[in-house]
Write a structure and sequence with these properties.
Helix content is 36%, strand content 19%. It is of the alpha/beta class. The strands form three sheets. The protein has a seven-stranded mixed sheet with strand order 1-3-2-4-11-5-12.
């Protein structure tokens, strides 16, 4: 029996009766169901639930004729739930990060290209996505150095980092999930550096240089306070991947689709991005340019991230980029 946790966001009122009626007219009345993934990490899952619930409450306060019901499922259950759902039983809106199989021969997913195009000028919008996916966060390569071994002066090349680490009695390890991004940046085969336990090795002090992503930042900050530094790849190019991608069922009613689209647009608003990435420490980085600038100001170790993102973008293989979001997904 699938264990599903249900969070219901109640209808809310904002302002007086006239304000309520005006807002009611802007969206059709609808009750939508939203399915998303939990990882089993209690702290991360609580942070994600807190952010999504707060955003939904703000949304339903603004549109009092709309309600949102959240349903969660574990990583092990999640893909099976969607694969086994027939076209008429898909949730209206659901998280689709890492789920490449659900679209195979399935016409029940709404094309979201026009919706994404309507807001992409305000977003980091060059990452790999399917037409039926709408991203609300990004993940970039970040290099973490355990300073108890020593320092690494430059991230110009992986080989140079390896020589420095070897001299200090340390190793360079790359997260398997980030392999595609590092190969795109440095133009080399990184297979010899891939270690499945790379993050765990770094957190336990057994690795000097961990080539991971921004999704690892808060775990490393919490586990190794004062004994790490962050380097941004020093390349002429940049790359990133989308995380926390969402899809809408095309078999939902027209009113449900309209509300779901509006909620996706709301998720990339300044208010929602603030909830997701500043007020709660969800993994990854804001997709909204303005909020990422604020994030960089708050976390000084991330200084240089926007400069990195402004370099020439290099696309990573689509399947790798999407599959890479599975580990450590975010809201």
């Amino acid at each position: 029996v699938l264990s599903l946790c249900i969070i219901v966001v109640a209808l809310g009122f904002w302002g007086g009766e006239l304000s309520r009626q005006r807002r009611d007219a802007t969206l059709p009345s609808a009750d939508i169901t939203v399915l998303y993934m939990i990882t089993g990490d209690e702290e991360a899952d609580a942070s994600k639930a807190e952010a999504l619930s707060a955003i939904a409450q703000e949304f339903t306060n603004e549109y009092a004729n709309v309600s949102i019901e959240f349903i969660t499922a574990s990583e092990d259950e999640y893909q099976n739930i969607l694969l086994e759902a027939n076209e008429n039983s898909l949730p209206v809106l659901f998280e689709s990060s890492g789920l490449t199989d659900i679209s195979a021969g399935n016409s029940a997913l709404l094309d979201l290209n026009d919706l994404f195009d309507s807001v992409k000028e305000q977003l980091y919008s060059e990452g790999a996505r399917q037409s039926w996916q709408f991203p609300v966060g990004i993940d970039i390569p970040l290099i973490y150095i355990n300073t108890s071994f020593g320092t690494v002066e430059s991230a110009n090349s992986i080989e140079e980092m390896q020589r420095t680490c070897s001299s200090a009695g340390g190793t360079v390890e790359i997260s398997a999930e980030a392999q595609g991004m590092y190969e795109a940046l440095y133009g080399i085969d990184t297979a010899n550096y891939i270690v499945e336990s790379a993050k765990e090795d770094f957190l336990s002090g057994n690795c000097m240089a961990y080539l991971g992503t921004s999704s690892d930042y808060f775990d490393i900050q919490k586990t190794l306070p004062g004994t790490y530094e962050v380097l941004i790849p020093n390349c002429t190019d940049s790359t990133y991947r989308y995380i926390s991608m969402w899809s809408i069922s095309s078999t939902a009613s027209a009113d449900e689709q309209t509300v779901a689209k509006s909620f996706l647009i709301y998720l990339v608003s300044e208010l929602a991005q603030d909830y997701l990435y500043l007020q709660t420490q969800n993994q990854g980085l804001p997709i909204l340019r303005n909020t990422l600038e604020e994030c960089q100001e708050i976390y000084s170790e991330l200084d240089g991230v926007t400069e990195y993102l402004n370099r020439l973008f290099v696309e990573v293989n689509t399947s790798e980029a999407i599959q890479g979001t599975n580990g450590g997904d975010t809201a």
